Amino acid sequence: MTILQQLLSELKSDDKTQQVRELCDKIQKEEFDPQGHNDHIPTGPNIFLALEVPGRTNKEIAFLTLERENADLYLAVFYTMPLLHTRMPEASLKRQKVWEINDHRPEKILTEYAKVNKFLRGE
Asked: Taking a C-beta distance cutoff of 8 angstroms, is the pair 93, 42 a contact?
């Protein structure tokens, strides 16, 4: 049994969106990095998960989010921000790349998100 299957078996809700949200909350807690750039993590009502990933250069910070567009469309979104601007409150993250995940099954959504995450980390 994979870790994802084990997490899915622990869920109590039958609502697929709620299952994705619960899984993302568990992943977010597990992957929290107290040394990271936590003040700049993208947030919003449809952002289920946001993990810091390496930037394109060592002069920027980056995040990969899992966002919901509608019931069957989730997005993996790559955001970046210049490292020099992290102390400026008006500095904001910019969307650089979007990957569509056209599915409603939590295991498929998180598997696709993990593939993009591994790609961005160079694994």
From this structure: yes
